[in-house]
Amino acid sequence: MARLLALTVLLAACDPTYLDEGFHVADDGVELHPGAMPATVAGDEDTAGLAIDACAWWADQLGADALVPSEPGYVTVALGLVPASTADLDAGGEPLGIASIGYSAWGSVLTCDVTISSDIAYDRDTALQVLRHELGHCLGLADDPGPPTTVDLRSVMASPLDPLGIVTDHDRALLAPYLEGL
Asked: Is the overall model pTM greater than 0.85, yes or no?
């Protein structure tokens, strides 16, 4: 019986590795992809409402329940201190959020802990936008790097974040095989 080795990687929007395929590649070269679908998402007392709303947004965008609110969740969401060196940053360089991912040796996402900066928690719209982006990382998606590439900057995975970000056709196509049967 093969043993799964759980590895942890911090996904950082400030310095992403992006392949044409659009899935994140960890520092050890493993390409990440969604794990069990649907992924369960659990918020704490401060983030439960955000988690529910973000899951509903992803379901609307994908036409499937890829992420569902549930206790316990293999994706957890909390407010806290986000180190600037590893975080998704806003256009001014302020830390917004981070997804810490545990994955198998084959790249299947096993766990994902999302931290949203408590400094932006007072602004629900921004916190929700950041959570949507971080949940994309929990599905294995990389940041869309923007110019000079041809990646759609309207993507929820754009960095810096677009307040009106959407799941692009490119991202939808990447996730389609994992959504079959949902």
From this structure: no
